[in-house]
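Q: How would the structure tokens look for this protein?
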Amino acid sequence: MKGRILTNILSALFLILFALGGLLFVSLRGPSATMRNRLTLTLLETSALKIVPGLFLSAELVDSILSDNAVIEPSGISDASLVTTFLPITSDNDGQATVAEAVNPDEWADYPEGIRIEYIKGDLYRGYVMLIRDPSRVYTATSSDFKSGQPGLKIPDAIKKEGAIAAINGGAFPDVNGVGLGDVPLGLVFSKGELLWGSRGTTYSSVIGFDENHVLLVGSMSPETARDLHIRDALCFGPSLVVNGEAVEIKGLTGGLNPRSAIGQRADGTVILLCIDGRMPSSLGASFADLIQIMLEFGAVNASNLDGGSSSHLYYKGEALNVSSSLYGPRRLPTFFMVKDLEDGGGAT
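A: Here is the predicted structure in token form.
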């Protein structure tokens, strides 16, 4: 009896894998170049399934798809002068949070904590946008000092460690076959004014960081350049999405459809956190072009893509706003963008 049940299970599993293989073959080797390219880009952006296109397509064709469908980032570093002076959230004599005079005070009249959350929906995706009025509250948090060899923290645990009111996943890390431990990052990492990762004399691309004036800068920089720019918090991922008020140049399909996270800033200093659900029937995911459109609609002057896929999570007051694309929930990550709670000293000094 047990042998028959096992045989039936294995037979069903074989049929599922056979059907999946047939679907991939038709999609990748079929007549639609657009479907082939979109699926190839989607799979290549994953850690565990990036080998799949190479099972059906030549290496030359895969490379061609990558080069013909890309985001072309501008060189240099974004212009900090495009972000204007802001007035932060303050407290009245009774200790209650109030909104100080701002560029558009009516916008924040109903949000005394200075945080506004909006649900968004496109043709193939759904997600959330979080607006943080005071950019001094947003900073890079890390799971560790990256010297102990400890695995990274899951985002709920990192939030508890920091005592933050909100958080989104951060930057890059080694993730071979999708089993990375999040113990160390990739690229440049600054946290609270301290260089925690990165080699002096090395220029890193796709740096995303706040300077001491709480202006979000994106671009390429070395630790020395970051110091000259008075960077207080930074990490690396990319690509950049909006630079100096303009959408970056896009070519072709600009990425596959996947869960996405991104960060941006408006001209008045307001920080934009974006998280898109993906890999589910109700939300397949977003492309880089989708992220660019969303960021521009919310007024971003500068914006950049963050780590995506199963790393994508946006939390507020201890609760996940998005739906994890992983069956196992949040992953272990080395870096995050956190938002300070007003009660814990959040706000400009």
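The CA atoms of residues 264 and 272 lie 5 Å apart.

The radius of gyration is 21 Å.

Upvote if useful.
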